[in-house]
Structures are given as C-alpha cells and as structure tokens.
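hey so i finally got around to running the thing on that chain from the lab meeting. sorry it took forever, my laptop kept dying and i had to restart like 3 times. anyway pasting the input first so we r on the same page abt which one it is
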Amino acid sequence: MKSRAQEKYTNKLASTRRIAEEKRAKAEVNLNEQAVKTSEKADYIRRTGHLPSSFSFKLPSTSWCW
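ok and heres what got predicted. didnt touch it at all, straight out
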C-alpha cells in the first residue's frame, strides 16, 4: 500500500515537472519572438527615421488630475 502511494506520488511529481518545463520552454519561445519583433522595429526606425504606423505609445492618462 505504501509503495503504491509512493509510486503514485513520484509519477505525479514527474508529470508536474514535465508540464512546468513545457511551459517554461513556451514562455522562452514567446520572449525570443517578442525580442525579434522589437529588434526589427528598432532597425526600421533607425533606418528610416520614422515610426511605423502600427507603432503606438501608451502614455499615462492625466485624467486623475483635478
């Protein structure tokens, strides 16, 4: 009985570790893709001196001022 519980616990722990590793790998891929896009936008701005039309700044709202 005890060995079965130990085996079940070990399997669950291994499964959790595998899922966590997959999520880490996916997050790293997304981060790398975002870095490539950012680099491409920066190169475009440096090359042309103009901001792309899809480029937008998110400025803080000043509506809280009285």
